[in-house]
Amino acid sequence: MTQTFLVTGAAGFIGSHSVEWLLAHNHRVVGVDNLRTGHLENLEVARSSPDFEWMLADVCDEAAMRELFKKHRFAGVLHLAALVSVPESFREPALNYQLNLAAADCIARLCLEFECKRLVFASSAAVYGAHAALPNQESAIPQPQSPYAAAKLAAEVMLLGYAASYGLETICLRYFNVYGSRQDPGSPYSGVLSIFTDRFQCGLPVTVYGDGEQTRDFISVRDVARANGEALTQMQVVADRYNVCTGRGISLNQVLAIYQELFPNAPSVEYAAPRIGDIRHSQGNPEKLHNILILKSQTPFEQGLRELVVGGLGR
Ligand code: UD1
Question: Which end of the chain is flanked by fewer CB atoms within 10 Å, N or C?
Fold first, then answer.
């Protein structure tokens, strides 16, 4: 039976890929976005499908969201809409509270009111903080170091409280460093691989903050979209928090070695002082999620990066 799913933040980087995964698996999708940071062009493929319905709306608008829940009987919700920038959460703590905590609570209450059983929530590896033991395990005590991480953690607690209280099937996915096409390189705080790809393609030098030996657990957006889709649609899931990562830490210098093969004539890399608050090493343990979801093999980093460079950021 065809089921209908709601995706909030549908026009974003992860949202648009997740919508496409759901459509490719024969589901109907309603996509909502206020286009604050999302782009309608990201939904070009989705909007050509008769199984996709687009709605320009703000997830904080409870009346508009209630109308949507009334109109459709959602089998599940993928809640991705968020304030996505950590530095912005320092500048705009009230907006961070609204978008990253209050909106999640609103969506969860609507799920309860309209008997939508499954809610998949976009959390972040940021909840671990800089001093957590590696690899990050979901059982570690979180140490949020930004308003962004604090709101994501608070939302997790709230939603898992609803799971325990009302049986809402809440899956909190802690994304690590997601990369791939449609990641907007437009701000200095954009994902490092979107910035590097954009600058190398324009023949411009890239800047590495620090010595380049910091590591990240980079995961392809394609694998993240699949994890989202499987979490939303698989029968047997356990309401809980899960890392979405590869388990492999890669240094920026290793990443640059791959770029240097792809752009042999690129200007030399510039090194600058480390960014304030920068985490030295980030690497997660993916086992818990892999144990509940049947996930096929993941995209090897070298392959994912080459595809991004060849295919382009906009695809
Ligand atoms: C990322 C997420 C953040 C999340 C965190 C969880 C993005 C944009 N940010 O932060 O939302 O909370 O993971 O762990 O996805 N760098 C350079 N040169 C540049 C840009 C960045 O050297 O031009 C460096 C940074 O200093 C950092 C590394 O690259 O050491 C990764 O930076 P970035 O992609 O911004 O991600 P995180 O800070 O890890």
Answer: N
